[in-house]
Design a protein that fits this description.
By secondary structure, the protein is an alpha/beta fold. The chain is built from 16 helices and 10 strands. It has 3 domains: 4-93 and 161-237, HUPs (Rossmann fold), CATH 3.40.50.620; 104-156 and 301-338, no CATH class; 248-296, no CATH class.
Length: 342
């Protein structure tokens, strides 16, 4: 494990120092796999990585997963990017939503909700629910998100795998290539933990992967783009981050205008399709997350969402499903579990 202070030290370096370290990691990866590498491109961060990689090895290919959920400006840009292969998912997003559910709150929470809902209420499920031991995955569902178990729609993190990751993984496997990505440790808790465990180059994983910019910050990426006059999709004139247009991960943390409110302004057709054809209106309404113009919801802030979560949890704990969970474990033990006294 890499100590977190070591990551902070690297993150504090000036951009030239970060570029040099990234170049070292790229050379290590290229040499180890004798040049059989490929850069996954999806947005600004990965385009910076591709620029650095091709400054060293100009013939390295790139691959872009056209999920159908990308901003049209990004799709158009990638179509004109030299030596870039475009892949598409075998399963449509609507089918992923129908089978597995909607991506809400975070990847970790959505996975936990999906996994728990697959089980029958038993003592083992209660243990998994409260202690995070479902199928040996040591990740406890926080009490704050218990109410999501009562959502009137399916929830999961599967869309990222079926729509984005799997097509790219299949491409690498079919072409005997190993991947490089431009993800940053600062993007999320999961990416932070991944970096601390494996560092930039994970040679020994089930799916070897290089993340040679993992210790960069988004300010570094923007500075690199500016210094090198690097072309990037025009959508970044309006958005700080892009990713899938309809993803709800982290939306509850955003101030007005949040991503859906901004999407209505910049891409009204995609906004309407997402809400009414894909069913996100029901999801966001149930979560009390605004998606219309800011002036229509001046009173909604993050504190209002927190108040809603508390209220929803109180109501969920009166539900038959929650009471069924409580019935499988003695109340005294359950109280200790909830209080973290196990």
């Amino acid at each position: 494990m890499i100590p977190e202070y070591a990551l902070r030290q690297k993150q504090s370096l000036a951009l030239p120092g970060k570029v040099r370290i990234t170049e070292v990691r790229i050379r290590e990866w290229y040499d180890h796999y004798q040049g059989q590498i490929c850069v996954n491109v999806s947005g600004r961060d990965s385009l910076v990585l591709l620029d650095i990689v091709r400054s060293l090895y100009p013939r390295v290919p790139a691959v872009f997963s056209n999920t159908g959920l990308e901003f049209p400006e990004i799709v158009d840009f990638m179509k004109n990017l030299p030596n870039t292969f475009i892949v598409k998912p075998k399963m449509h997003f609507t089918e992923v939503l129908r089978r597995y559910g909607y991506p809400v709150i975070s990847k970790e929470v959505s996975r936990q909700i999906h996994d728990i809902r697959q089980k029958e209420p038993t003592a083992d499920l209660t243990k998994a629910l409260l202690l995070g031991q479902l199928d040996n995955k040591q990740s406890r569902l926080k009490d704050k998100w218990l109410f999501l178990l009562g959502a009137p729609f399916l929830i999961s993190d599967k869309c990222c795998y079926y729509i984005k990751k799997r097509p790219v993984h299949d491409f690498h496997k079919q072409n005997n290539l190993v991947m490089m990505t431009g993800i940053l440790a600062s993007d999320s808790k999961l990416r932070l933990m991944n970096y601390l465990q494996y560092g930039c180059n994970n040679f020994n994983g089930k799916m070897p992967c290089s993340r040679p910019m993992a210790f960069w910050l988004h300010e570094d990426v923007k500075e690199y783009v500016k210094q090198h006059n690097l072309p990037i999709p025009s959508v970044y004139d309006h958005y700080e981050h892009t990713g899938c247009m309809f993803c709800c991960f982290g939306m509850h943390l955003e101030e007005c205008p949040n991503r859906f409110q901004l999407l209505k302004k910049t891409h009204p057709k995609q906004w309407a399709y997402c809400l009414d054809k894909l069913g996100f209106r029901q999801v966001l309404d149930w979560l009390h997350l605004p998606y219309n113009d800011c002036h229509l919801f001046p009173e909604i802030h993050k504190n209002d969402f927190e108040d809603y979560v508390k209220k929803a949890n109180r109501e969920f704990k009166q539900s038959a499903y929650y009471k069924q969970l409580m019935a499988v474990t003695p109340q005294s033990k359950m109280t200790n579990l909830l209080l973290g006294l196990h």
